[in-house]
Amino acid sequence: MPKMKVKFARDTVSVREPGSKYPTVVHRGTPWHADHPIVTANPDLFGDEPHHDDVLPRGWKVEPAVEQATAAPGEKRTARRAN
User: Which helix (H) or strand (E) holds 7?
Assistant: First the structure.
């Protein structure tokens, strides 16, 4: 079975599908079939690769790592205080 070609939205925009009177919202990072009418009519809005932050399911966010302020029991801190 051949692989289906997919394009990824580069930004969140509202576009009108050819022949439709209502706009469609294209969300950044969402995958679209490469032969979809919106993709073929707006090729500049879609790319071949998703951005790293776009591969998570919608609504999920990666929280930045938080540095531990104190040493855990039995752990030595290697950082020095700045003067």
Answer: strand 6-9
- Convert the pLDDT of each residue in 8-57 to its tens digit: 998 899 998 878 889 999 988 888 999 999 999 999 999 988 765 545 56
CA distance linking residue 71 with residue 79, whole number of Å: 11
**Size of the chain in residues:** 83
Q: Is 48 left (phi over 0), alpha (psi -120 to 50) or beta?
A: alpha
Q: List, in order, residues 6 or more apart from 1 with CB less than 8 Å away.
A: none
- Provide the pairing of β-strand 13-16 with 23-26: antiparallel
